[in-house]
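Sample pair:
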Amino acid sequence: LSEKVRLELHLHKDAITPQSVVTDLAQKIFGDLRDHTALVFGDTSTSRPFVEKLREKNLGSLLFSAANGDGPARWESEFAAKKVPCEQLTEALNAVDILLLFDVDMEEFLATIKMNKIMSRRNNAPLLFISCWDQVPGERLKRKNLNDIYNIYYYNSFDLDQIVASTLREHQKISHVVDALIEQETKDFLT
């Protein structure tokens, strides 16, 4: 019965956490994630749930640039991740499909490079850019114009939170439909 409810009401698309939103976005943009690469910049302990969710969906490869959190060596072994030195980040941006930003320093770094040039070197291949460091509502990322660049899909933590809130509202709206389905199935079973 629960599977029927999920299928009929499309509840299998459960964007109820920022991590699942990122995974859903990645799958909508790229489809199968096996041939795609993510670059995580920043605190590995904060980004871990995002990486775990992407790995659940068979993310192809993982690059990271971080010196803190639960330790780069652990990420190399646990996630088969490759560490990218800071001096190679611009080059890495040419090859990644998903950029997860958990550190303001990376934002400062990105402000110094021209994303139009990066996208040109990428042949305008889609780039999902997620910024999770901007936690203060008044401090929207300086790079909010990233969405104006062709094939960059930019979301910050507030965008992710809004998608989660919207999904939860939708789930609440259809809860009465779920109740009716369960009631009908129960009646059908008992008769």
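Residues 157-173 form the longest helix (17 residues).
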